[in-house]
Design brief:
With 325 residues, this protein is α/β, with parallel strands linked by helices. The chain folds into 2 domains: 194 residues, 3-Layer(aba) Sandwich (D-Maltodextrin-Binding Protein, domain 2), CATH 3.40.190; 98 residues, Periplasmic binding protein-like II (D-Maltodextrin-Binding Protein, domain 2, 3-Layer(aba) Sandwich). Helices cover 46% and strands 20% of the residues. It has 11 helices and 11 strands. It has a 6-stranded mixed β-sheet with strand order 2-1-3-10-4-11, sandwiched between helices. Helix 2 crosses helix 9, helix 2 runs antiparallel to helix 10 and helix 4 runs parallel beside helix 11. The longest helix has 25 residues. The relative contact order is 0.18.
Length: 325
């Protein structure tokens, strides 16, 4: 009897919410929209959020205010939005970390990426590049794989930290290429890149913006791009699939999410505001300066992508045994 009453109560509540949704959407936004960035100010996610906020403010007719809530690999900020009112006034700029890899790396994550958010828009992608010290004898991916198979465990690879995107990209590469490389974790891209430049580290997967300067200067060399297509900034550098190792697509990405239950009409309004913001030449130029690739996709595409990303990286974590620091 109690179960029937509970189900009936939930059904009535759902009907009430559905009836109220058009009213919510009609007056939306009625106040400032808070765009939560689950990382510190000054980083690439924060920079993209501020580009979005500036453009979307004009389209929505209300201020879009960026609020940095950093900590716990992005969990604090993303978790706060997951619990926020589903009225479109609190949204989050999530990443492949907050909405894909955290779920398998951190068992205490207080939300589920696919279940607890309403997807709004995929914003941008950032390719990872397989880079090597400039004097590494291997001049191509094929030569690297051949050398690594001949001497398992001899070659080192760096990452920006245990459980980081660069770490998981390298572990995915190891699995697909069938090689054994020795992991050397660092606290961020800068010290890792310094060791590559100094020749004390053999290879690494790094986001393109973090190493493009060194590649262009010739202090390190790019062997391949871990993406489905070549990077515009590195047209001569093949993808890993072109270089003979398929299945290593490891783009970092930024995407906008609202709390679960946000009315579709509000999600649509947010998506249109994002599209208008990103259509501005100034916004596109600013994104290019950040080294990110515009990759605008709507709620349906983003919603279909998230479970696949969670599953993909969960398998990498399982096989590699990767853990966060």
């Amino acid at each position: 009897m109690m179960r029937r009453r509970t189900v009936l109560t939930a059904f009535v509540a759902a009907l009430a919410l559905a009836a109220h949704a058009p009213v919510l959407a009609q007056g939306y936004p009625s106040r400032a929209v808070t765009l939560v960035v689950p990382y510190p100010a000054g980083g690439p996610v924060d920079a993209v959020a501020r580009i979005l906020a500036e453009g979307a403010t004009a389209d929505l007719g209300q201020p879009v205010v960026v609020e940095n809530r950093a900590g716990a690999s992005g969990i604090i900020g993303a978790g706060a939005v997951a619990k926020a009112d589903a009225d479109g006034h609190t949204i989050v700029l999530g990443t492949n970390q907050t909405h894909a890899t955290n779920e398998s790396l951190i068992k205490s994550t207080p939300y589920r990426a696919a279940a607890d958010f309403a997807p709004v828009a995929l914003i941008a992608e950032v390719p990872h590049v397989l880079v090597a010290r400039k004097d590494l004898p291997a001049m191509s991916v094929a030569e690297l794989v051949k050398a690594a198979k001949a001497e398992p465990g001899k070659f080192t690879y760096g990452s920006t930290g245990n459980g980081s995107a660069s770490h998981l990209a390298a572990e995915l590469f190891k699995t697909k290429a069938g090689v054994d490389l020795l992991h050397v974790p660092f606290k961020g891209a800068a010290p890792m890149t310094n060791e590559l430049v100094a020749g004390r580290l053999d290879v690494a997967f790094a986001t393109l913006p973090s190493v493009i300067g060194q590649i262009e200067a010739g202090t390190i060399k790019a062997l391949a791009v871990a993406s489905t297509k070549r990077a515009t900034a590195l047209p001569a550098v093949p993808t890993l699939a072109e270089a003979g190792v398929a299945g290593v697509e490891a783009d970092a990405w930024f995407a906008l999410f609202a709390p679960r239950g946000t009315p579709a009409s509000i999600v649509d309004k947010l998506y249109k505001a994002v599209g208008a913001a990103l259509a501005r030449p100034a916004a596109q130029e600013a994104l290019a300066r950040q080294g990110v690739t515009l990759a605008l996709k709507g709620p349906a595409d983003l919603g279909a992508m998230i479970p696949k990303e969670v599953e993909k990286w969960a398998e990498v974590v399982k096989v590699s045994g990767a853990k966060v620091d």
